[in-house]
Amino acid sequence: MIAQVGFLTGQTTQLQLMPVIFRQTTIRGIAVAPRTSFDRMNPFLNQHRIKPVIDKVYAFEDAVQAYEHLSRGAFGKIVIKVAED
């Protein structure tokens, strides 16, 4: 499975199809807004003191449990910390 999250430059590419077919690859496109939207959103969130609801924070070693929690349904965000502060 290949998850393509947005793109930095260009919207076309050359793709060798035989490896994709032989490996039975699934390509999933994930649309995201441009970086400028993200940059405008953050000051708005800070100004209005909007904070995300975090259901639970998991250590990186517990990522499997985090995904299991997510699949069961979560009230808020599930966070996986990749490093200690």
UniProtKB/TrEMBL annotation:
It comes from the Bacteria. InterPro entries: Zinc_ADH-like. Pfam families: ADH_zinc_N_2. Coiled coil: none annotated. This is Alcohol dehydrogenase.
